[in-house]
Specification:
Zincin-like; binds zinc ion; Neutral Protease, domain 2; globular; Immunoglobulin-like; binds tryptophan
């Protein structure tokens, strides 16, 4: 127990306390009489005692249920309620199976938490991960209890013509009897055992896009994407993504679809992105619906990733699941890794693959690194939690994926330098051992290592697993020394990880450092000779000690070290490169990731220097970036060898959040001013180049969301943004006018939204009318309205106007706090994605935040707790922000009836 602020105890769940369940549930037969106000659930189970566990009562989890009847082997029985558990003490002795029948009701229409069974747009949906099944019936709601499910759904046929659950449809028809006029039923049997968090049902007026496919092995499958009538024209991309996912998992890992039927259903009320329920994935509409008129390129690639992600869970998560929720990264880290690899493999060329990698790393560094340095820091495999929903984090997902990626890298060999073949062998071993089981992260790592004996991973497996156990981002310090006489280059690498509250000292990690040497003069890739061996032009160093020295011989010219290529480990690399060295890497590195990284390092360096400068020399002169750097960026922009998508990434400055992360004390207004100054400098200094870039890339042809044409649109959009920014300073009206015209004429949402963004972002007088026109045009498209809200909440704050606008939008007829997508589009965009608008010297942003956290908590604690995390990094803030932020946190923490979700977040933020 931990005593929370208001004295109410909250149970801390600890990984070390794991014990196997006292009972197993073998079969579950559920019958639902669906009614929004009062749904009746009959749950008939067969159970048996777990012989390995000392005899004890059966404790079933249940939440917000009305219990009507309990029968054991058909007879009434005694039971008691303890907290949220139904406790049965008088059960048959021995390990013979017995039946348990439980009859309950619940109220789906009142379920605003969107966990368990709920109603959205007059249809029924479920969300059971992590602990939602207990809101449907009493159960052993834990992932290591796997059962066979039979589900019968009964409902009004007109209102709910489509009745879906996991597995195969075995029977359907009209119900007879006087009480059942107009009602029908459907019976589903799932051929695979599963934990209850993978249970799902859907009932409502839905239509489906259907596709029949034949697998490599010749089996036939039916694929269906269910949406509301009217949305069918937005399902093609999701279906294509699903077919590509199925083909990819067969090709790369030999994992086929194991069901006759695979269904995706979209709902507009959903707490997260999507859910991998066996054979019946339920998706946020944001990750299903797209056509060129309503969705941007980013939306298209999000759909591809999430459809892939949920499909890949069918093996990594569903066939092999987690023993307990501390092992969440077993399925999430691995499945994010798989969806990243999937999207990369779909890219047509190396440049597009590098762009995808850069985008993934950008997410890791702007979201996960701060998490790992803040109050919610936790290992990839956490040791304790109060509310498991708070641990669906970028650490478990994205850092977890990096841990899996490092395993792949570390099973590489000269014949398989990237480790892809070795890793695939490891996956085969994992399924051979554990198919159908609920296992731990240790089991996974062991399988990968055992399949690759002698690999760098197998040699250091125990040490490698510290990545699962230790929180925090390690720093790798690199020093290089070139001896021209001897033609040697000595590279010293050392590692350090700052202590955290839970872990006062950290042991060395195993850090794979993919590297090369680039000639400082020639720009050529230099041959790598180490310990008498020749390694071509790229080599993997494995840092597993606090400090290691590597001496390269036959180094014919002074080199610049290109370290951590492709971001081979989730660490911070400290190396004091000169500007000239970074410019060399930017111009010549054969590794696209490190070319981009060199530009980011330079931009960051200029930003930090300007922020630190006491006199506002830079601000008054408009010179933030050096001449040489601006010239180098011009060269990238004009380089005919480089792809548009890559150029767009190089020419995008590091975000304010990422800049803040580099500083000990954060003044969000100062960061914003400096970054805006840098943007203005690029807008003006490269004006002619932006004009060229826009004209040369503005027509991407007939719309297709592929990487190449979306790159053209991204670069044209960036150019337009800079041109509107330059126009604001110069008073030019031509470019804003052209931008407005492009906004009106655009043939796709990407171009239209980029133009609108350019107008709003530059504070153009044309922005207001454009926003109004956009609203009128898309007032019936919920996902487009989300963009409309988000754009205004995230707008550049010139004079503090954004908060007022956001408060007004709260009262807009299209706004509702009950819909998570809409709440995120307005409130999260303001509190999380607009640092300068949010961190106000008058504290009004924090007051707004506290009000919304408390208001949302009463509706949907899971979403409220995510918003609560917007002040995670308050201790880094300069005054007056720090004091005001603390006050806002204290105000929320002091509220009496907070959910565990929000309490855990604010309590951790305030702890010292
Ligand atoms: N397992 C889901 C995924 O693919 C995550 C998820 C969806 C989730 N909905 C949720 C987690 C609700 C917690 C609560 O990543
Ligand atoms: Zn997942």
């Amino acid at each position: 127990m931990s005593m929370l602020r208001d004295g109410a105890p909250a149970t801390v769940i600890r990984r070390q306390d794991y014990t196997a369940p006292a009972f197993w549930i073998d079969t579950v037969d559920l019958t639902f009489d669906l009614d929004p106000a009062k749904t009746r659930v009959l749950n008939k189970m067969t159970l048996r005692r777990n012989a390995d566990v000392a005899a004890g009562p059966l404790r079933l989890d249940g939440e917000e249920l009305n219990l009507a009847r309990v029968l054991v082997n058909g007879q009434g029985t005694s039971f008691k309620m303890e907290d949220n558990q139904l406790v049965l003490e008088n059960l048959p002795e021995g390990t013979e199976p017995f039946t348990l029948e439980i009859f309950t009701t619940c109220a789906p229409a009142k379920n605003s938490k969107l966990m368990g069974l709920y109603v959205s747009n007059d249809s029924f949906f479920t969300q059971c991960e992590a602990e939602g099944f207990r809101r449907i019936t009493y159960f052993l709601d834990r992932p290591d209890v796997m059962a066979s499910y039979t589900v019968t759904l009964r409902a009004d046929k007109k209102k709910y013509p489509v009745l879906l659950s996991n597995g195969n449809l075995v029977e359907q028809g009209d119900l007879d009897g006087a009480d059942n006029a107009g009602r029908h039923f459907a019976k589903w049997v799932d051929p695979h055992k599963k934990p209850c968090y993978l249970f799902a049902l859907v009932a409502g007026k839905l239509v489906a896009r259907e596709q029949r496919i034949v697998s490599r092995a010749g089996t036939e499958h039916l694929l269906q994407v269910f949406v509301r009538a009217g949305d069918l024209d937005k399902t093609e991309h999701a279906m294509n993504s699903l077919m590509a996912s199925i083909a990819w998992d067969e090709a790369r890992f030999g994992l086929p679809l194991d069901l006759e039927r695979f269904m995706i259903v979209a709902t507009s009320d959903f707490n997260m992105g999507a859910m991998e329920n066996k054979g019946l994935n339920i998706f946020n509409t944001k990750y299903v619906l797209a056509n060129q008129a309503t969705a941007t390129d980013t939306d298209y690639s999000g759909i591809e990733s999430v459809v892939g992600h949920e499909y890949f869970h069918n093996w990594t998560g569903n066939r092999i699941t987690c023993r307990d929720w501390f092992q969440l990264s077993l399925k999430e880290g691995l499945t994010v890794f798989r969806d990243q690899e999937f999207s990369q493999d779909l890219c047509a060329d190396d440049s597009a693959k590098a762009v995808k990698r850069i985008e993934d790393v950008r997410v890791l560094r702007t979201a996960q690194f701060p998490e790992d340095a803040g109050p919610m820091a936790h290992p990839v495999r956490p040791d304790s939690y109060i509310e498991i929903n708070n641990f669906y984090t970028v650490t478990v997902y994205e850092k977890g994926a990096e841990v899996v990626r490092m395993m792949q890298t570390l099973v590489g060999s000269p014949a398989d330098p990237l480790g892809r073949a070795g890793f695939a062998k490891g996956m085969t071993q994992y399924f051979a051992r554990h198919d159908g089981q609920a296992v731990t992260c240790d089991d996974f790592a062991q399988a990968i290592a055992d399949a690759n004996p002698g690999s760098a991973l197998a040699q250091r497996l125990e040490q490698f697993k510290r990545w699962y156990a230790q929180s925090g981002t390690p720093r790798v310090q690199a020093r290089g020394f070139y001896n021209a006489q001897e033609q040697t280059y000595t590279l010293t690498l050392s590692q350090h990880c700052a202590p955290s509250n839970d872990q006062p000292s950290k042991l060395p990690f195993v850090i794979p450092v993919r590297m090369g040497l680039v000639g400082a003069q020639s720009g050529q890739a230099l041959g790598l000779h180490l310990d008498g061996n020749s390694h071509g032009h790229e080599h993997l160093l494995v840092l597993d000690q606090p400090e290691q020295v590597f001496t390269f011989t036959q180094v014919s010219e002074e080199p610049v070290a290109s370290l951590l290529r492709g971001f081979s480990a989730p660490v911070i690399l400290d190396m004091d490169f000169s500007d000239a060295q970074l410019l060399t890497l930017l111009a010549h590195d054969s590794d696209a990731f490190n070319r981009w990284e060199a530009a980011q390092r330079l931009a960051l360096r200029f930003a930090i220097n300007s922020i630190a400068a006491t006199a506002d020399a830079a601000s008054s002169s408009g010179q933030f970036l050096s001449e040489e750097f601006v010239e180098a960026l011009r060269a990238v922009l004009r380089n005919p060898q480089l792809d548009a998508a890559f150029k767009e990434l190089v020419l995008t400055l590091p975000s304010e959040t990422y800049i803040a992360e580099q500083l000990g004390v954060v003044d969000p207004q100062r960061i914003h001013a400096v970054r805006e100054g840098m943007r203005a400098q690029l807008a003006n200094a490269l004006h002619a180049d932006w004009v060229w870039a826009f004209e040369a890339h503005k027509d991407s042809g007939a719309y297709s969301p592929d990487a190449h044409s979306s790159g053209l649109r991204a670069l044209a959009g960036l150019a337009l943004g800079y041109l509107c920014l330059a126009a604001r300073d110069s008073g030019d009206t031509v470019w804003p006018g052209k931008t407005l015209q492009r906004f009106k004429d655009a043939g796709n949402m990407t171009d239209r939204f980029n133009a609108l963004h350019a107008l709003v972002g530059s504070g153009s007088p044309l922005a207001e009318a454009a926003l109004a026109r956009f609203h009128t045009q898309f007032k019936d498209e919920a996902l487009v309205l989300d963009k409309w809200f988000a754009l205004q909440a995230g707008a550049c704050d010139r004079g503090g106007q954004v908060l007022g606008a956001v408060r007004q939008l709260l009262n807009h007829p299209d706004f509702t706090l009950k819909n998570p997508n809409r709440a995120r589009s307005l409130i999260f965009s303001y509190c999380n994605a607009n640092p300068a608008g949010f961190h106000r010297a008058d504290a009004a942003g924090y007051v707004f935040w506290a009000e919304r956290v408390m208001e949302l908590d009463a509706i949907n604690p899971q979403v409220a707790a995510r918003l609560a995390r917007a002040l995670d990094r308050w201790k880094k803030l300069a005054e007056p922000y720090q004091h005001a932020a603390r006050e806002a946190l204290v105000r929320v923490a002091a509220k009496g009836d907070l959910s565990n979700d929000v309490r855990e977040v604010v309590q951790r933020a305030l702890a010292d």
